[in-house]
Design a protein that fits this description.
- The complex is a heterodimer of chains A (117) and B (116).
- With 117 residues, chain A is mainly β.
- Chain A has no helices and eleven strands.
- In chain A, a hairpin with a 4-residue loop joins strand 7 and strand 8.
- With 116 residues, chain B is an all-beta fold.
- Chain B has no helices and eleven strands.
- In chain B, strands 2, 4, 5, 6, 9, 10 and 11 form a seven-stranded mixed sheet that branches. A four-stranded antiparallel sheet of chain B has the order 1-3-8-7, with no helix packed on it.
- Chain B starts with a strand and ends with a strand.
- Classes of the chains: A mainly beta (117), B mainly beta (116).
- At the A-B interface, strand 4, strand 5 and strand 10 of A face strand 5 and strand 10 of B.
Chain lengths: 117, 116
């Protein structure tokens, strides 16, 4: 099955700097890679996702890149703000149609991002 | 369009009692997933359900845990004879009818279960 590794586990940056979080996955068949932001006491919120037919996707200050050959993808946050402080999770999922035991999303262990004002 | 709803938000049970966690998916979503999150850890898949069907329960312990998603009403995650190790946050996510491009899962606020 799929195995997702995420680095770093903690990241501290100064307000205005950029933050980069990296993930690797093991199943070359995975074709959907979302990123979630989880604030304290809340559920994960989908912030951006990328499918394997594109290499990069951008939405304002956040961007995600995907390298299928190397099986890794990264989240980039530019001009960080204190409200970006949260735990960020990457995930990978196999393609549809799903089969039993091959359709669940695998999550990385998370990165705790702290943006210092 | 209301998001995924879970209740209760907090649940305290004594060892040996039963816990029932409810999840109402987003309107129009027919797929529900349950995840467990221990403190300072990531999300662990438990079970994936469609209406009246369990599609994949490979992440759910075989003893004491069960899940259902009836034709009418919310999805229920049931934990019988709870033990302290069951204390965690349980999240439900939903997605619309799965197609070749529609994979997004949207999470609820979670139920925080504490077993005393």
């Amino acid at each position: 099955g799929e195995n997702v590794e995420q680095h770093p586990s903690t990241l501290s940056v100064q307000e205005g700097d950029s933050a980069v979080i990296k993930c690797t996955y093991s199943d070359s068949a995975s074709n959907y890679f979302p990123w979630y932001k989880q604030e304290l006491g809340k559920g994960p919120q989908l912030i951006i996702d990328i499918r394997s037919n594109v290499g990069e996707k951008k939405d304002q200050r956040i961007a995600v890149t995907l390298n299928k050959t190397a099986k890794h993808f990264s989240l980039h946050i530019t001009e960080t703000q204190p409200e970006d402080s949260a735990v960020y999770f990457c995930a990978a999922r196999p393609p549809y149609p799903f089969t039993s035991n091959n359709n669940d999303m695998r999550f990385g262990a998370g990165t705790r991002l702290t943006v210092k004002p | 369009n209301a998001g995924v709803m879970q209740n209760p938000r907090h649940l305290v049970r004594r060892r040996g009692q039963e816990a029932r966690l409810r999840c109402s998916p987003m309107k129009g979503h027919s797929h529900v997933y349950w995840y467990r999150q221990l403190p300072e850890e990531g999300l662990k898949f438990m079970v994936y359900l469609q209406k009246e069907n369990i599609i994949d329960e490979s992440g759910m312990p075989k003893e004491r845990f069960s899940a259902e998603f009836p034709k009418e009403g919310p999805s229920i995650l049931r934990i019988q004879q709870v033990v302290r190790g069951d204390s965690a946050a349980y999240f439900c996510a939903s997605s619309p009818q799965v197609t070749g491009s529609s994979y997004e899962q949207y999470f609820g606020p979670g139920t925080r279960l504490t077993v005393t």
